Amino acid sequence: MSEDNSHSREYVLEADSELRFEIEQKDAKVLVTLVTGFAELFGTELVKKKKYEFGVGAKVAIFTYQGCVLHVSGKMDVCYISKETPMVQYINCHAALEQFRIEAEERDKRGPVVLIVGPMDVGKSTLCRILLNYAVRVGRRPLYADLDVGQGAISISGNVATILIERPASVEEGFTKTAPLVYHFGHKSPGANNVLYNAVVSKMAEVTLQSLDANKRRAFV
How many domains does the chain have? Predict the structure, then answer.
């Protein structure tokens, strides 16, 4: 179910549901406020009474484990509440990874390394953001490696990069990209030069794994 919403209204979300909306029109602006309850956006907790602003191109899914009330105002092209969400599976995945980290600590071993792959526009970056946020929220300092030279989630496109995540992503702006480790590839597809791409990724992996060995409390996504 979808609706064209250009007015202010409140949405009451039941437990394990999420409010989804998209903004496609230029200069459109949507403001979201958590009125009551608890909610999060891609693993980042929303603060009550704070107004969050979203603009053109935003694809938002605000999830609640316990139920909440959200106040939303502005022009959205799509807006609906869904009970069908993968978030429960994602938190279960995080819980399994955290158990691996605990076991690695007890044995003084390197923690788990997670590789997320798939075709374009299926939510790989969003899943990375969720798992990274959950890791930070339990006291971890995960390393995020971006091997997608076409998108450039950490650096500009044409590069591969790794960054240490020390705090949850901003709801509106994402992770702070301070002091990333960046290697230049120079193309937007690995197929443009497979030999060079493999060499660049191998070098970045060598340096990154050394960092993991130096601090085994880190995760790797």
Answer: 2
